[in-house]
TrEMBL record:
<dbReference type="InterPro" id="IPR027417">
    <property type="entry name" value="P-loop_NTPase"/>
</dbReference>
<dbReference type="Pfam" id="PF00503">
    <property type="entry name" value="G-alpha"/>
</dbReference>
<dbReference type="GO" id="GO:0005737">
    <property type="term" value="C:cytoplasm"/>
</dbReference>
<feature type="binding site">
    <location>
        <begin position="127"/>
        <end position="130"/>
    </location>
    <ligand>
        <name>GTP</name>
    </ligand>
</feature>
<dbReference type="GO" id="GO:0005834">
    <property type="term" value="C:heterotrimeric G-protein complex"/>
</dbReference>
<keyword id="KW-0342">GTP-binding</keyword>
<dbReference type="GO" id="GO:0031683">
    <property type="term" value="F:G-protein beta/gamma-subunit complex binding"/>
</dbReference>
<feature type="region of interest" description="Disordered">
    <location>
        <begin position="211"/>
        <end position="231"/>
    </location>
</feature>
<keyword id="KW-0807">Transducer</keyword>
<dbReference type="InterPro" id="IPR011025">
    <property type="entry name" value="GproteinA_insert"/>
</dbReference>
<dbReference type="GO" id="GO:0046872">
    <property type="term" value="F:metal ion binding"/>
</dbReference>
<keyword id="KW-0460">Magnesium</keyword>
<feature type="binding site">
    <location>
        <position position="36"/>
    </location>
    <ligand>
        <name>Mg(2+)</name>
    </ligand>
</feature>
<dbReference type="GO" id="GO:0005525">
    <property type="term" value="F:GTP binding"/>
</dbReference>
<dbReference type="GO" id="GO:0007188">
    <property type="term" value="P:adenylate cyclase-modulating G protein-coupled receptor signaling pathway"/>
</dbReference>
<comment type="subunit">
    <text>G proteins are composed of 3 units; alpha, beta and gamma. The alpha chain contains the guanine nucleotide binding site.</text>
</comment>
<protein>
    <submittedName>
        <fullName>Uncharacterized protein</fullName>
    </submittedName>
</protein>
Length: 272
C-alpha cells in the first residue's frame, strides 16, 4: 500500500497528538488537506485586497467542469508533483496506467493554450520539492528511465539538474513564453543546459529568468495528437519549487496577481 504524505506526517506526530489536551497547530491543520474532487470557491483578504480562489479537481472526470470557471480570471495556479516522474496512476476512464508527470504536462499544455487564458498569468508550482530532493538523493529511481529526453551528459541524481530539466520540459510546451525570477534555483545557467534538450526541440535555452526575456520553442514532438490551438501571444509564467504546506505560497500568488493586473491595465491604457 502506498503511504501518503499526510499519513507519514501524522505518524511522526503521534506522541504529540496523543496528549489529552492536544490542540492542532497550523501545520497540523494544513497537513489535513485532501484532494479536491469538485469545484470549491473561497474568498480571502490580503492587505485589504479581496482574492477569490476557485479550486478545481485535477482528476480526469473533473476536467470537463473546468470550462465553467474560465472567465474573468487574473491568474491560473497550476500545481505539478515534481517528485512524480517515476509514479503511475490508473486512468479509470481508459483503464490504462499513465505516468503522473507526463499527464501533468499534457494537461498543462492544453490549459496554457486555452483561448480564455491569453491575458492571465500562469503561476507554475513545482510542488513536493522536498520529496523530489529525497528521491533524487536516494539514488534509487532515476528520471532518465522514465523521461528519455533527459540529457545523456547530465547527472540524473543531481537535484539542480533534475529541477532544470523539469523547468525546460514545461517551458517547451508554450510558445512564446516569459519566465520571471521566482526562487533560488538558477535555471539552465550551466553549459550543460545551454544547448537544446534532446526531445523537446527548443529554439533557444532559458538563461537567467527575467521579465521581458523570451525564449520561443519549436513544436514539441511529444505533444498529443490533438493539441489545443496555439495562442501566438506573449504571456507571463512564474515558476516556483515549493512544498505542499509552504505558507509563503500566498505571497507568491498575490505578487504575481498584482503584476498581472498592472500589465493588463497598462495594456488597456495603450489601446485607449
Amino acid at each position: 500500500m502506498e503511504e501518503s504524505e499526510n499519513t507519514r506526517y501524522y505518524l511522526n506526530r503521534m506522541q504529540e497528538i496523543a496528549i489529552p489536551n492536544y490542540r492542532p497547530t497550523e501545520e497540523d491543520i494544513v497537513w489535513s488537506r485532501r484532494p479536491t474532487d469538485s469545484i470549491i470557491e473561497e474568498e480571502i483578504f490580503v492587505h485589504g485586497t479581496s482574492i477569490t480562489f476557485i479550486d478545481v479537481g485535477g482528476q480526469t472526470r473533473e476536467r470537463r467542469k473546468w470550462c465553467q470557471t474560465f472567465t474573468d480570471m487574473t491568474s491560473v495556479l497550476f500545481l505539478v508533483g515534481s517528485s512524480h516522474y517515476d509514479e503511475l496512476y490508473l486512468d479509470r476512464v481508459t483503464g490504462e496506467y499513465r505516468n503522473k508527470l507526463r499527464e501533468a504536462m499534457t494537461v498543462f499544455e492544453c490549459l496554457i493554450n486555452f483561448d480564455s487564458f491569453r491575458r492571465v498569468s500562469i503561476i507554475l508550482f513545482f510542488n513536493k520539492s522536498d520529496l523530489l530532493k529525497e528521491k533524487v538523493e536516494a539514488r534509487v529511481s532515476g528520471i532518465r528511465a522514465h523521461f528519455y529526453e533527459f540529457p545523456q551528459d547530465a547527472d540524473e541524481f543531481n537535484l539542480v539538474a533534475v529541477q532544470n530539466f523539469l523547468v525546460e520540459a514545461f517551458a517547451s510546451l508554450v510558445d512564446p513564453i516569459v519566465f520571471c525570477p521566482a526562487d533560488e534555483l538558477t535555471p539552465t545557467s550551466s553549459p550543460l543546459f545551454q544547448n537544446r534538450l534532446s526531445g523537446f526541440q527548443r529554439k533557444s535555452a532559458i538563461s537567467q529568468p527575467a521579465v521581458g526575456r523570451s525564449a520561443s520553442m519549436n513544436a514539441n514532438p511529444h505533444r498529443g495528437s490533438n493539441p489545443c490551438d496555439r495562442i501566438p501571444r506573449k504571456r507571463t509564467i512564474y515558476r516556483h519549487f515549493t512544498t505542499a504546506v509552504d505558507r509563503k505560497n500566498i505571497k507568491t500568488v498575490f505578487n504575481a496577481m498584482q503584476d498581472t493586473i498592472l500589465q493588463n491595465n497598462l495594456r488597456r491604457l495603450m489601446l485607449s
